[in-house]
């Protein structure tokens, strides 16, 4: 039986797009009959034992706490600690494949162990770490740190036996760095249809509690980062309310921009049309999806959003929801304008308002739009079929007479 060890940044019980993708991969691989475990580094912040089962998945943790001090030295110390933990688990469990997931620090730690034990290594990139730092406001494009991280990423890709990326934008970028496209597979974001494929009915009591009776509801459910463009969505509300007086905006979640967004909403002339819920338990999220007529994803235009496809619009489509999103590259890979969703210009509150008002004025298309979008997810972005993309890569690596590392 094939043993797959996934090297991770963080995992369940933490909730994020990263952990939900991981959960889907591990569950699908277990259903395939493979033995699967995950090991997280020091960036996993949830308390718990060094080995635990969460939601039926087997996780190991890197012991100790994150290093402190100089950022570069701190990260190298964390890599060393992560590598030591991977080494101990490899000696105990003997995986056939090591599957490391971004950020690049995980790949570096995993490669040290994989090379020592001649174990094939797959490196999966969900976003380039340097671009994620810019999107999160913790880095600057073109800075020395940005350049160094980019070089580490390229080096890690060259030294992996195979590379998986979540979208065509990332594969195209790696090709410009001289990486052989044949070495790269695209394993796109998908949805567990068993979990998201059966929408719940709207709860009238929750509708009343939120003050949404009779409203045209636009919503966002997710993390409040700057690159999500929620400030543009709030700025669009005056125009939208003037066109659709019953329009309301429901924001569910939290994050670094939450207070700034609350302050912006409070200063809006239509503050009473903007409802903040805060974070909600994951098992309650579907009830908030049911309150929303149109899910809006107004991501700003930048390298991160042009290269990376998000998970949330797919989950919304699986829930039978209407989706409207900015026309950044990551969204264009997921949404066909006028077919599975509506695209509007990024960084443009007036364009957002016009697109949303147009959708509310044309309810006759809603039923067909929802059905087409859901069928797209079920057919092309369902994890039960997405998982098949890894299998030929694993088989090819395991069939090598000598499991040598890829040439640098």
From TrEMBL:
It comes from the Bacteria. GO terms for molecular function: hexosyltransferase activity. Residues 17-190 form the Glycosyltransferase subfamily 4-like N-terminal domain. This is Glycosyltransferase subfamily 4-like N-terminal domain-containing protein. It comes from Sphingobium xenophagum.
